[in-house]
Amino acid sequence: GEDVEQSLFLSVREGDSSVINCTYTDSSSTYLYWYKQEPGAGLQLLTYIFSNMDMKQDQRLTVLLNKKDKHLSLRIADTQTGDSAIYFCAEWANQAGTALIFGKGTTLSVSS
Amino acid sequence: GAVVSQHPSRVICKSGTSVKIECRSLDFQATTMFWYRQFPKQSLMLMATSNEGSKATYEQGVEKDKFLINHASLTLSTLTVTSAHPEDSSFYICSAMTSGGISQQYFGPGTRLTVT
Known about the structure:
The complex is a heterodimer. Chain A is mainly β. Helix content of chain A is 0%, strand content 56%. In chain A, strands 2, 4, 5, 9, 10 and 11 form a 6-stranded mixed β-sheet that branches. Chain A has a 5-stranded antiparallel β-sheet with strand order 1-3-8-7-6, with no helix packed on it. Chain B is mostly beta strands. The N and C termini of chain B lie far apart (37 Å).
């Protein structure tokens, strides 16, 4: 079945760049997403990338997609303490219908 | 942007009672709503997909008689946890999808259920 894997923790210093990595298994994924979840809150869509793209940049966020290796990354430039949260990678796998398949989430901790 | 609300945001109930969680799309019509469950430090697990006016489609392993889903209108879906037990304690998140497809899926803020 479909599977999305992420590393569980990442710790960085304020001002550094953060890179959160994700791998997925479904080669037919059409969209790949990054969501942010702050403590006690729901999910916030950060950005998404269509599978025919290699890169997407949105202000401090850069998404890189290596479709051959089924690897997705999210780079946050100039990481701030407010970026501390759990980041979920998700894919839309056609075989699963219209639901998203989520990774377990990466907890990003930013220290000042 | 599109807003999805959930009510209540937190609920504590006694074991054996039932609790209803509402999910509303505030400024758009949602053809499909999804219910997810999130365990501490774990990923979201899709519980069911509901389309307005039809029966929900439950994921394997989710008891449909325990987690009742009603999608009575294009802006409201409810999840009722019946005969709740402590193991049902979790964070429940709904999402609503517009007719634009998966890229227009909006998540609610979640409901924290604690069963004592």
